[in-house]
Structure formats: structure tokens, C-alpha cells
Write a structure and sequence with these properties.
By secondary structure, the protein is mostly helical. The protein contains 8 helices and no strands. The protein is globular, with a radius of gyration of 18 Å.
């Protein structure tokens, strides 16, 4: 890829159109192209990537407390990019596969209904292993609409605080997965990470639905033309420069 001209805000070329990524897979590939080399050098272990994801959720809560709409949108974009960053650190395990497995068109994998009608006690999930169908072509916006239909009523009734706490809990599950890896076989690692990252994505989309943010647009606007900080289509930032979360915690 050629570098983006360093003109315009944050080094972006204002004349270059923001692309639309037609599926989760194409968005994942794009973000890997933009940040893969940088992440491999400065974030070589998954635990550092998971830490940034957790800090991103903390930043979202801080932005919500301040009612800073622009910061909320930026933080959602960061969280989305960091989910893909972790997937990139697991040999580019496809996020779309986990979403298909855990959130199929047939409805809730626990109660089987669409919309979900789960009670406090629910059976074990019946995962969908027939991935590669229609849902594999969906973009994040389509997933956000679908999950809004499937779980939106339940999540809205329980409120934003509940949704954010569940998002934190799912991020913790990713951390637990990392510590379990020495006892797992490689295919199990891929499936576990795919499912856990799908859950984090689902709860991110749930929070975005309640807060009125289009996650697809947020990520495309910030990263569609390359790195939001250096403006290049293959990021050359170092750890003091790249789009970091700690500034949002001040």
C-alpha cells in the first residue's frame, strides 16, 4: 500500500474518500494491513493487547461520565480496532467465524428464540458450526442491527451500566483464555479466541446501540484511510505516538 499524504487533520488526506468495508473479514484484513507490522514490534505479546482493550473500556466509561460525544465515538473505534488487534495476535483468527458460531440466524444459541427470551437460568449454548453462510458476508453495521434485534430489548431493559459491566466481564474472559492456553491444543485456542472475541464484539455493539453509535462508521471514519495519528496506510508510529488509550484516562 502507498502512504497517505500528510495533509489535513491528524495527517490524513482530506481529498481521499473514506472507504466502506463490506464485511467483517475485509475490515479485519484492512486493520491488519495498517497496524500489523507496528503491533508485531511494539505489542508482540497478546497480554499487552488485551490490556489495551481493557483500558479502552475504561476510557469509554470515563467519556460517558463526561458526556463527551466525540470522545465516546473515538473510544468505540479504538475498542473495535483493539479487538481486531488481539485477533491478529492469534494468527489472524477470523472474528466473523466466532460471530457466526455464537450468534446465528436461527436465533439465540441458548433459548433458540429470536428475539432472545432467556431466563436467569439457561441451558448450554448450541453453537453453530455451519459458518461460511450469509452472515460471513455481513459488515459490522449489519451485525449491530441483527444483535439489536436479537438482544436489544433485553439489554435496554437492563440498562447501560449492566451492558458495560458485561463488556468488562467479557474482556476478563479473554484474559482468562490467555492464561489457559498452555493446556489447550491449537484448534481449541483458535475456537476459544474466536468465540471470546465475538462475545466482546457483541457487547461492544450492545453498548453502541444503547449509546447511539454506529461502530462501523466510527472505525471507518478513524482508521479507514490509515492510522489516525501518523496518517500512513501502514502505521509507522512508535509507542509514544500511536493511538494510545492512556490519554483518555486523564
Amino acid at each position: 500500500m502507498s502512504d497517505v499524504s500528510d495533509k489535513g487533520p491528524e495527517g490524513q488526506n482530506p481529498e481521499r474518500l473514506i472507504p466502506h468495508f463490506e464485511s467483517v473479514d475485509t475490515l479485519q484484513w484492512h486493520l491488519t494491513e495498517v497496524f500489523g507490522e507496528r503491533n508485531a514490534i511494539y505489542l508482540p505479546d497478546r497480554r499487552s493487547r488485551i490490556e489495551l482493550l481493557n483500558l479502552g473500556v475504561s476510557e469509554l466509561i470515563a467519556a460517558r461520565r463526561l458526556e463527551d460525544t466525540d470522545k465516546i465515538t473515538t473510544t468505540f473505534a479504538r475498542i473495535g480496532a483493539r479487538i481486531f488487534c488481539i485477533a491478529n495476535g492469534v494468527n489472524n483468527v477470523p472474528l466473523s467465524r466466532g460471530l457466526e458460531m455464537k450468534y446465528p440466524l436461527s436465533g439465540c444459541v441458548y433459548c433458540g428464540n429470536s428475539p432472545c427470551q432467556c431466563t436467569e437460568t439457561r441451558p448450554a449454548a448450541r453453537l453453530n458450526y455451519n459458518y461460511g453462510g450469509e452472515q460471513s458476508t455481513w459488515d459490522l453495521r449489519t451485525w449491530q442491527d441483527y444483535l439489536g434485534h436479537l438482544y436489544g430489548g433485553v439489554n435496554a431493559a437492563k440498562g447501560l451500566d449492566y451492558t458495560l459491566s458485561r463488556l468488562f466481564a467479557e474482556c476478563s474472559e479473554v484474559t482468562v483464555t490467555e492464561y489457559r492456553i498452555p493446556k489447550m491444543k491449537i484448534p481449541e485456542i483458535y475456537e476459544e479466541y474466536s468465540l471470546e472475541l465475538a462475545d466482546v464484539t457483541a457487547w461492544t455493539l450492545a453498548a453502541a446501540n444503547i449509546m447511539g453509535v454506529d461502530l462501523q462508521s466510527a472505525i471507518e471514519d478513524r482508521y479507514g484511510r490509515g492510522c489516525a495519528t501518523c496518517g500512513l496506510t501502514q502505521c509507522k508510529c512508535n509507542t509514544e505516538q500511536f493511538d494510545h488509550v492512556y490519554d483518555g484516562l486523564n
